[in-house]
Amino acid sequence: MDLEPDRQIDHQRRIATLAAEIDQARARGERIGLRKSTSNLFRHRSETGKHFIDVRGFSRVLAIDPQRMTADVEGMITYEALVDETLKFGLLPAVVPQLKTITVGGAVSGLGIESSSFKFGLVHETIEEMEILLGDGRLVTCSCRENPDLFYGFPNSYGTLGYALRLTVRLIPAKPFVHLTHTRFSDPQSYFARVAERADSAVDYLDGTIFSRDEMYLTEGEFVDQVSSVSDYTYMDIYYKSIQRKSEDWLTAKDYIWRWDTDWFWCSKHFYVQKPAVRRFAKWGLNSATYQRIMRWSYKLMPDSGGTESVIQDVDIPIEHASQFFDFLLSEIGITPVWMCPFKTRHSNRHWDLSPLREGLHVNFGFWDVIPSTHEKGHFNRKIERKTRELGGAKGLYSSAWYDEAEFWSIYDQPRYKQLKQTYDPQGVFPDLYSKCVRRH
What we know:
- The protein is of the alpha+beta class.
- It has a domain at 5-174 and 424-437: Uridine Diphospho-n-acetylenolpyruvylglucosamine Reductase, domain 3, CATH 3.30.465.10.
- The protein contains 15 helices and 16 strands.
- The chain has helices spanning 5-27, 79-86, 104-109, 117-120, 148-153, 188-198, 239-245, 253-257, 276-279, 288-301, 322-333, 379-390, 405-411, 414-424, 433-437; strands at residues 31-35, 50-54, 61-65, 70-74, 91-93, 127-133, 139-142, 163-173, 177-185, 205-212, 215-224, 248-252, 308-318, 338-345, 360-372, 394-395.
- β6 and β7 (139-142) form a beta hairpin.
- The radius of gyration is 21 Å and the shape is globular.
């Protein structure tokens, strides 16, 4: 794909500036961090002794090729901006993570997911090529054919090998509307059996919502050309509450993609904006970007509230063990609602080095809340990590992690990671994966 000449020149110019800045910071012995407009990380990050390079400008679509159905984009572009551009061509990224503020580069380095992942896998499995800025200022292009060790080692690396400044994203055809069906189940065994069955179907989207042990829904979405009316969950009506009321629904394609963003799934309840009187005057703030800003302010003002534990987790479990994790989650953690998203991961060419997931169908359980606790700090999060590992699953590293170092490296293949570090960050400009995702500074 040929980039537009002016954008290509500007892209290369800004990369050269970043490379020089990294080189200067490295000469001073400083660690490198990113200054960017959005972040979906939910863990403490020390900023002491870091030099932050400003990558906020790397946020554009460089080119869209409707024939090849690909988009060439800069790494810090949000999915909101990318979707706005691709829909002009009747196209969407194959997998669009659920929040508008997630960036394409961030979704690859952190294993993004959504309701088309049962067909296309996780976000990194829909990327054809990447341009990675390394800690020594080099720019390396990688794909399954060119520098494949970096291509297969970059997903889940969380910026510890380099930063994705350009990516080629696979697109799919989209129609103007999405028809939804919400099917209720009262038995977990039947529920996950149907998930496995529908994961081999021709529907376009598949996810679910769990409200209690005997109330769970499987939502199927299919593109359609015409509808008589559409629902609107961007203001007074709340999407997740509609699931319990409607067996069918229709949304525009754009509103379907962002159906979870308005209320941050259901977490907007913590900010009282689900109350109609508040909601009526807060339309401007009904989005994930607002909620994230509020949370980060609260972390700074009240880093440890005491008597509670923050449990913000996405856990991936093999389908055959999904019912077991479901029972554990509701019995021993007690958070509802829960988002359920099936996905298939494939190792057709080779394994993704830093993903501990085996090939096949998995279920992602997303649950996010603050729960009462009289235990030591991290008690419930540690229980979740132990159960996840016992069932052959893995958890997202975007949130707080409590592994000790030996356990962490037994999960994330330390020998292979060391090889990648030695090849692409031999001087240790970036922290290692354990230091970045677990160690508390």
